[in-house]
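Field reference: "sequence" (input) and "structure" (output). Example, Helix-turn-helix domain-containing protein:
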Amino acid sequence: MPSSAASISLRQLLMALGDSLVEMQVAPAGLDVEIRSVALLDPEDPPSAQLGELVLLIGARGRAALPALRAAARDGATAVVVKLDGAGQATALGETAAEVGVALLSLRGEARWEQVHALARAALDDAPPGYPSVGAQEGDLFSLAQTTAVLTSGVVSIEDSANRVLAYSRSTDSDEIDDLRRRSILGWQGPEAFLAKLREWGVFQHLHSSDQVIGIDSHPELGIRRRLAVAIRSGDRQLGTIWVQESSSPLSEHSEQALLGAARVAAHHLVRRRRELSENVTLTRTLLAGLLEGSTGPQPLATHLGYDATLPAAVLGFSYGTAEVVAAPELTHTEVTNLISVHIAARHRNALVTQLDPRIYVLLPQLPRSIDTDTLRGWCQEITDAARRHLGLPLRGSVGCVVSGLGDVPESRREADRILDAMMSADLPTAVAALPDIQAEVLVSEMLTLLSAHPEIRDPRLTALVAHDSRHQGRLAESLLAYLNALGDVREAAGQLHVHPNTLRYRLRRAEELTGLDLSRPDQRLLAMLQLRLPSST
């Protein structure tokens, strides 16, 4: 997991996550310890962590979580998050955490791991490099939400233009939070029924066109308390919305003024974050493309993303099954890339996806040393199945060899390309393959590529036969290749061509007469079989 250039304190992380998601169990070193990065640890992953890391321990509860908890403390992790089934588990894990010196947080029952992961990463991303472990900065959305809550005496949430929650203030009293806010935070997004009401009441139209604060009355029948809202704007573009929910006490007298100021501060933050994100994505794509093509070494990408360049890596390749899809609109290519990204991220958190026309590649860095080809083939199969099921696209996938480190990634990419080339040229029925699956097809494909690039090593008699068919709309070359593919079985070849066996025998004699070939000689049969497989020969 790459280390973040920025850091936040455990106290600020708790403020960012809120009581509705996690509960603090023990903090042996206090709440001002530094968190530098966040990682999901799957039960199949080796128990390890990085210095200053927040480790989200998935799939292990009770005593099963103890080895990972101890390993995280050994490696210098700041905190570990687990799910608990009961008080007994909390006591046992808490005692161990206190003993080894790592903070322990528990995930509440309704919360989801991916939600905590996203919010923790967002809190880190909001903190610029050199961010102090204690104290708020203007660029921190969570701190801005908390400050706005203090100034308005309300409960604040900040959303993007798609109504996804980016940050929210922390409430110490769960009774102050209405059902809408609770469901929005737990679901990352406002419930559709309420969003429909806001559209009906004209709230979204107002936010889209105005900088002014708008009020929404309470609706007890909907579980909604009174709210204020203001658009976060940059020029004519709406970047998001700040919402202030009234708590058990009325909103302060100057709430609207505070909300206007908060919206302007949030606008600067979101514009900066979009710019930095765009610059970071562009740099990552450039370094990734250079590594795959072999024009850039492994260290720039490893340094940029905090990867260990000495751990195993592999490349998966994907290609569209037909030329029509390659020429499809850019939206189709974006949908495929997004689908691949979502599916592979669920399997390997450090995966990187990029498109190098006309193919899409997945770099899998920092793989476990125990990874095998069957596992990677299964990941590939999941993606091609999903592309066919959800997008109706005949996607082909290839598994490049697992290499010892990032420096050998171009070798894995070349193997992935070799497999895709063979699958496409031979029109194989399989959607996913590794080299052992189609070794013969790959080698024959590469022989044909060599033969195609060097006309001087072709038999001119076969070239003349193909030219004769072209002039006379004949099928002699096609019939000869079918006969050779059937190992000289006339009846089988005739059946494939849908002709009578005698018709095929006549065509074979005619081909020998025109070319002078002697089909009784193995070397001439071998050369004919190869050359007639060239795309221009049939």
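The radius of gyration is 31 Å.
The domain at 141-273 is CATH 3.30.450.40 (Beta-Lactamase).
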